Fold:
Amino acid sequence: MIRLEDIRKSYRVGPVTVEVLNGVSLDVHEGDLLSIMGPSGCGKSTLMNIIGLLDRPTSGAYFLNGREASGMNDDEVSAVRNASIGFVFQSFHLLPRLTAAQNAGLPLIYRREPEGRVRRLALEALDRVGMADRAGHRPNQLSGGQQQRVAVARAIIGEPSVVLADEPTGALDPDTGAEIMDMFERLCSEQRMAVVIVTHSPEVSERCRRRARVEDGLVHEEGRVPTTPDQG
Ligand code: ADP
Ligand code: MG
Structure:
């Protein structure tokens, strides 16, 4: 479903080039629940942005559902991102003036789906995250855990193949974080989605079937023997 081959990413800041990713190779399959840990600044968000088609690598190949991303133009990237990827963020990123149902429906609004269908699927998505009874609430009328459930509903409403969650429990207490993890587990086992979670929490990581760390610009997966690099 996802294949990264020797992905490198560097940023130019003035005269300085910062090498963030130095040849990352990684496969993610349907139903995978993968955690990514590593110290602040090691490149976790950079990696997620590349997987999420929000940023392009400096070099290397990225295949999403068999299509190589560097060959896509910006419109194709947007369309593939909208169809294939759901995002969940630490701080929820809900639009404050919209209700839970309207927030959950946003990806389908961007796809120009008819209003009635968006409304129906939004209520279904909220039901899947246990939020059907809060459809008319605005974000400031919801707890943090409830807001994150709405954000998960928004991430899954378009039936993406992968959900990318960047520290999704970072702003939540441990019990609420565990409930969010219950939802991710269900998405993987029942809906065969892949979920990739960046986290600082060992409790969150322990619940993932696959665990990886970003270190020195590379991804090391626990219990996996690294393949011999082609060069250097
Ligand atoms: P993490 O999510 O693991 O904390 P990031 O991926 O956000 O780390 O950042 C990795 C490194 O890349 C950091 O040193 C950061 O300063 C640098 N970086 C991230 N984004 C940019 C950018 N747009 N321009 C320049 N440097 C960046
Ligand atoms: Mg980050």
User: Anything to note?
Assistant: The chain has seven helices and ten strands.
